[in-house]
Amino acid sequence: MAETQKLPLRKEVPVDLTWDLSTVYQNDDQFEEDFSAVQAALPELKKMAGTLSKNADALLEATQRLLTVSRRLEKVYVYAQLKNDQDTSESRYQAMYARSQSLAAQFGAAVAWFDPELLTISDQQMTTFYQQQPKLKAYKRLYDQTFAKRAHILGHEVEEVLAGADDIFSSGEKTFGILDNTDLSFPTVTDENGQSVQLSQGVYSILLESTNRKVRKQAFEKLYEVYDQFQHTLAATLTTNVKNHNFKAHLRHYGSALEAALSANEIPVKVYDNLVSEVNRHLDLLHRYVALRKQILGVDDLHMYDLYTSLVGKESPKYTFDEAKKVALDALQVMGPEYVSHVKEEFSQRWIDVVENRYKRSGGYSSGTYDTNPFILLNWKDNLDNLYTLIHETGHSMHSYYASHHQPYQYGDYSIFVAEIASTTNENILTDYLLDKFKDDPEMKRYVLNYYLDGFKGTVFRQTQFAEFEQYIHEQDAKGQPLTATFLDDYYRQLNQKYYGQSVISDPQISLEWSRIPHFYYNFYVYQYATGFAAASTLADNIVHGDQNNVDKYLNYLKSGSSDTPINVMRKAGVDMTKSDYLEKAFEIFEKRLNEFEALF
Ligand SMILES: [Zn+2]
């Protein structure tokens, strides 16, 4: 908190460390022009309702006009959002952002008729339309994504009830959010410096990394004392959420809630099942890692609160922003000169908002749209973690750049399933690069390996543990099993024991972990972190140790945007995510690096 006082004001930040949003709109007046143009177009879009199935030309016109407005709206939205994020205290941009959000909602309402009307067109009629108006073929995949839902769309009246009751259906998630973010009050605990700090989810994760064991233990125990008191309420909110998914999946004729959730992103259930079974087959590697952790920490008993503290001391290797850019460029040479030239553009043309200033949004992200640069927000600190953040967000931005430069607007974005692959491939390339660079420097090597192993544990193992839990509770509810707190506690403890093995004491508190994880309300979302990281391990390995062909395939994936299904897009990169090879390969790399790490102690 004390640090807030020292942060510069936005206007004090050197211009070359800020992003150049004048490349989006030269000034706010230009933003207002586009804003008004979008607003004025909405009644026209609404008026087209009822014209869609008339003939091929009507369908083409409606599609193109909708996309034109959508494209302009995205630019408006991104400008306001980035302006607001750079200094959230500025009321001018707060208002611009709020207006843009409302405009987006109005756009949604104005075109809500489009999908239901499209669904009234039969496959046969579409075939005729494509013949009559060949320009429609440019939008075929867009239409097909809606047609794929045809078998799961219900009668008009049922759909209306479902849409109207959406607020009620999501009450489990909402109640959890309010309880967790607002109503739960946490006690104060003592930090490393002997100071009293107010516990929160954010403070908890920092304290759990403390090198002082007493600090970790106290944070762990105090946090779970709070969740323990509310576990029955939290079992009820989670149950409501699970029942919501199961009820709708059944109503819409899906085999399971899992199938319903995955099909929304065109992902076969096999991808999920493969992940869970392959991770289970390789749990011995996690057990080995945990045993090694116990040995390095030199404790008689390893507890769940000992799993996040660093194994290589506290001080991170230091990288200034300029040094980090150099390292990133060097590491990414393996992507070839064209990719590197775009990264140079990112670094030199002010795509990045680098340093922290007062009231700037925290964290880091890559954001932009079809007609803007893929900007990056950072809150730079001189350490290894931030070097990884820079190369991660650069991966996203390059993906956006390639997709928007090689696809028409309608396919210039990409699905969430493939998004984290581009960013973590870059991270894995960096790991490879650093391990090679420091091959004769055991201290640095230890640091990099520790970073990688921790990342793999947290992303592949832990997220799959969550995925397994999510699947199990949905299946149990579907069978009629009440999801009581006791039932959830028991299963979670067993699952946790299975994942971490015998070297760690499964403290009773960990049974409650399910009760505080917001991701269990995201409807089968977390597995993508695990599949993404595993695919990225394979791809990075292919790029670093393979030939030009591997790089070309990888760039084809980036260039594909959303022009094909996520599974097909990844096939272009050379990874078949319906099979298990890519997971096997990821575990092979993990094992190799675990061996190297072990040898260094
Ligand atoms: Zn990311």
Write a brief structural summary:
The protein has helices spanning 2-6, 28-47, 56-86, 91-110, 114-118, 123-132, 140-147, 156-164, 166-169, 171-183, 201-207, 213-229, 231-251, 257-263, 269-281, 283-297, 321-331, 337-348, 384-406, 416-437, 442-478, 485-500, 527-545, 548-560, 566-573, 581-599; strands at 188-190, 196-198, 302-303, 352-353, 365-367, 375-377, 504-505.
Explain this structure to me?
The protein has helices at residues 2-6, 28-47, 56-86, 91-110, 114-118, 123-132, 140-147, 156-164, 166-169, 171-183, 201-207, 213-229, 231-251, 257-263, 269-281, 283-297, 321-331, 337-348, 384-406, 416-437, 442-478, 485-500, 527-545, 548-560, 566-573, 581-599, and strands spanning 188-190, 196-198, 302-303, 352-353, 365-367, 375-377, 504-505. With 601 residues, it is mostly helical. The chain has three domains: 10-164, Oligopeptidase f, N-terminal domain (Butyryl-CoA Dehydrogenase, subunit A, domain 3), CATH 1.20.140; 185-229, Orthogonal Bundle (Helix Hairpins); 238-314 and 408-601, Neurolysin, domain 3 (Orthogonal Bundle), CATH 1.10.1370. It is globular, with a radius of gyration of 25 Å. The mean pLDDT is 95. A hairpin with a 7-residue loop joins strand 5 and strand 6. Helix 17 crosses helix 20 (416-437) and helix 24 (548-560) runs antiparallel to helix 25. The structure holds zinc ion (ZN).
